[in-house]
Specification:
There is one protein chain. This protein has 430 residues and is an alpha+beta fold. The chain has helices at 7-17, 20-27, 41-55, 67-70, 77-83, 99-110, 133-150, 169-182, 220-237, 317-320; strands at residues 61-65, 89-93, 118-122, 155-159, 191-194, 244-245, 255-260, 265-268, 271-274, 279-284, 291-298, 304-311, 322-327, 363-371, 374-379, 382-388, 408-411, 418-427. It folds into 3 domains: 1-30, no CATH class; 31-242, Rossmann fold (3-Layer(aba) Sandwich); 255-427, Jelly Rolls (Sandwich), CATH 2.60.120.560.
Length: 430
């Protein structure tokens, strides 16, 4: 039999047996899967407030979690207003909550009488001391099961437990293991697992105070990273047809330089640019699999760059993933180009069916659709590539990107000035 302490039972013992409750409470540990409320006044008041909001109806999005989710009301307030207020979202984040507390809330009013389109869950970090990785994963899965049983038409986006650096390494490893264990909840077609933890880490894979000052709770910048990373997926799961901005036009939020001896990427006049040799390539902070991508580029005379898709952070991104060529292929120095090197080609694999590049110095529009292994490229509104990358499996030893089903999107620094703007993405249904 699993041990279980309810707040009600503890209070009754306190009334009838005085200090004896302290002995009993200390000897009885909460499990991660048995619903338990908390008795703090603020928690009871917040629970009542959330239930009152739910009773008002008009709820399309649930954000479920602990203090990190609760923080959408403080450090994340601006991003909440931008992304979630318009979606009739309800913040169900309670500071300090563990999985068992969330389960109690879901069974006691949070889900009554509503029919949201989507729930986003990020929970489990506060279970790190009292529960094993398996128990934490079990608690998270129990939350998913409760949501699926109560609201079967609602989709669920289950996030990996965010990285933290305020606890011992063994606890960090436990939380990572728990995420790996509950990621299998995505076997349900209504549930998707998404790990956006790389969005919070620097190029060396470290969590810094610039994102989480206490190495646990995101600051305003950290919430912008979170919102940016999940936006395309939330839009898809909520059935929205619109595109999500990969580049805000104001900052490099959602992007990170990989490699290079110096920083060469920046933002100027609403567009991304890279200038000079010695810089690395620019990568999104999360990975994508099936998508449509739109962007505009401006390449100077003799300029050279590329758009990477489904590429890892390791290795040559043009071959570890795929590269869609971007360059001034009319320049004299490129007179000996092979067809698969022309602008818009899938580098080393698929040449463009026609040459539709504009002169150097003009803004040009590129569209890329990568669905399973079918790839389509349009340049200046003209289809120039429509092929099947699976036909190139024999090239995998030298070009392993032909086998990749997921990876980062990136922009290449090839030593010349290059400008990009209006970078948008739409995830395709699985």
């Amino acid at each position: 039999m699993r041990k279980h302490c309810s707040i009600l039972t503890s209070r009754m013992i306190f009334i009838t047996a005085g200090l004896l409750v302290l002995v009993l409470s200390g000897a009885c540990a909460e499990t991660a899967v048995d619903p338990v409320p908390r008795d703090a006044d603020w928690w009871i008041e917040r629970n009542a407030a959330v239930n009152a909001r739910v009773k008002e109806g008009n709820v399309d999005l649930l954000m479920i979690g602990d203090s990190i989710t609760h923080g959408w009301e403080s450090g994340g307030a601006a991003e909440w207003e931008k992304h979630y207020a318009r979606r009739n979202a309800v913040n169900m984040g309670f500071s300090g909550d563990q999985t068992q507390h969330v389960l109690w809330r879901l069974a006691n009013g949070h889900l009554d009488g509503i029919s949201p389109k989507l729930a986003v869950i990020m929970i489990g970090t506060n279970n790190f001391k009292n529960h094993s990785a398996e128990e934490i994963a079990g608690g998270v899965k129990a939350i998913v099961a409760k949501l699926r049983a109560t609201l079967p038409e609602m989709k669920v986006l289950l996030l990996a437990i965010f990285p933290r650096g305020d606890v011992a390494v063994e606890y960090q490893a436990k939380l990572k293991e728990a995420s790996e264990l509950f990621s299998t909840a995505e076997e349900d077609p209504m549930v998707e697992f998404l790990d956006i933890n790389s969005a919070f880490l620097d190029q060396q894979g470290k969590l810094t105070e610039a994102v989480m000052p206490d190495f646990l709770h995101p600051n305003e910048y950290g919430y912008s990273l979170w919102a940016h990373a999940v936006e395309p997926t939330i839009a898809r799961l909520m059935g929205e047809d619109g595109w999500s901005e990969l580049f805000t036009g104001a900052s490099l939020v959602g992007w990170q330089q990989v490699g290079g001896e110096k920083e060469t990427w920046g933002v100027e006049d609403g567009h991304l640019y890279t200038d000079g040799e010695g810089g690395g390539w620019l990568s999104t902070t999360r990975t994508f699999n099936d998508f449509e991508l739109e962007l505009e580029f401006n390449v100077p005379a003799g300029g050279n760059s590329g758009v990477f898709v489904r590429t890892p952070r390791e290795g040559n991104p043009a071959y570890a993933g795929l590269e869609i060529q971007v360059l001034d292929d009319a320049a004299p120095e490129y007179a000996e180009l092979k067809p698969w090197q022309f602008c818009g080609s899938v580098y080393s694999l698929l040449p463009p069916a026609q040459r539709v590049s504009k002169p150097a110095g003009e803004w040009q529009k590129m569209y890329i659709r990568y669905d399973d292994f079918k790839i389509q490229v349009k340049l200046n509104d003209q289809e120039i590539v429509n092929g099947d990358i699976s036909e190139f499996k024999d090239k995998a030893p030298d070009h392993p990107g032909v086998l990749r089903e997921e990876g980062f999107i990136g922009l290449q620094n090839h030593g010349s000035r290059l400008d990009y703007r209006n970078i948008k993405l739409r995830e395709l249904p699985e």
